[in-house]
Amino acid sequence: MMAVRxxxxxxxxxxxxxxxxxxxxxxxxxxxxxxQGFESNIDETCWLICKKDFISKCQVLPEDCMYKxxxxxxxxxxxxxDPERPNRFQVIMDTxxxxxxxxxxxxxxxxxxxxxxFEELIGNANGFQFGTFLTxxxxxxxxxxDRAGLVEALNAVTNTFxxxxxxxxxxxxxxxxxxxxxxxxxxxxxxxxxxxxNEEEKEQCGSITLDPRCWVDSxxxxxxxxxxxxxxxxxxxxxxxxxxxxxxxxxxxxYSAGTEGYQRTLLRRRQKRRKAELQEKHRRSSIxxxxxxxxxxxxxxxxxxxxxxxxxxxxxxxxxxxxxxLLEEETQAKRDEEIVRNLQARVLREEWEKREELERLQEEHxxxxxxxxxxRKEFEIxxxxxxNQLLEAQQRLIxxxxxxxxxxxxxxxxxxxxSVSEKAVASIxxxxxxxx
Length: 436
Known about the structure:
- This protein has eleven helices and twelve strands.
- With 436 residues, it is of the alpha+beta class.
- Strands 9-8-7-6-12-11-10 form a seven-stranded antiparallel β-sheet, covered by helices on one side.
- The radius of gyration is 45 Å and the shape is flat.
- The relative contact order is 0.05.
């Protein structure tokens, strides 16, 4: 498995922006930050090679802003076959992606996004090349924007698509050595949570590495971020922000193991959805075309029948009446056929319902058999236990009988001894009077 990224050499850059493309493969074992670093270096090199072709044509955007849009375009664009030259490709940004970027720029500038106006503007276009994309933004949305607002809006777009920033905002963080809550400006990415002294993001105070082994929960109005190193305690100023940060942190952790990143994953999903919609559109167009061909054939057949009917009417009035009867019978046959089809559909539906009922009864029967089998197993276990108890009782009875026999023998011997003793005592008693 390889991760694909533009490789814009001097020839490939011109080809990529004018209709062709060359690819560079990077192994998937590289982490997401390393891959993003490679992409940044590639974008910078490509821009140095081809920027002169666009700077001279652009009247509003400064070079740094054009570079940011160039990176966003390269990120969101796709390779499509050039319809005029099938052996070459074009790098095209789909109109939906153009609308996504333009809407974020417009909303970042504090204006309302007009989706219907955008759709009317692009017409039937399927996508734009980079030069057309720049012209659209420059003429339509960025003509009267001051430089500071423009830079801020394009920074927001770059943060979203290129830097893969999921969320920014203020959080309170409890210190490790000094356990007090201090306010920082946090920047959340799929693999790390950075925090700065303020929202200018010039002085970084630290970072927290995120991976799939991390998890986050809420405890007493606090956000507890558990990592492999230690647990970080964060807090927000209101309940809504806490819920938003909890959701964003869980989202970042879920994407921390991948090599594509959050925005690239969303891009892949949008591309797959557009591809599926395009296939569905082609399928519907094919069905409509087949229906039109069939309808045209039916119209031609009907016209032929009408011509033939007129000829028959001229030839014979009686033959015309017979033909009308045949047409009526054909119509009736179609109606009867429709009735039969409806009946067949109803019978099929009833058969399906009966089948579902039969399957349900079968499942219940299987369940009853399973219950009966379980009861039989329990009965066999109890039967074996009782048999074991009976064997133990029989063994015990044998032991008791043996013990009884032993005791009887001992009793017999004792009785014999007593009898002997009594005889001895009696003889002694008889001898004593005689002696006296």
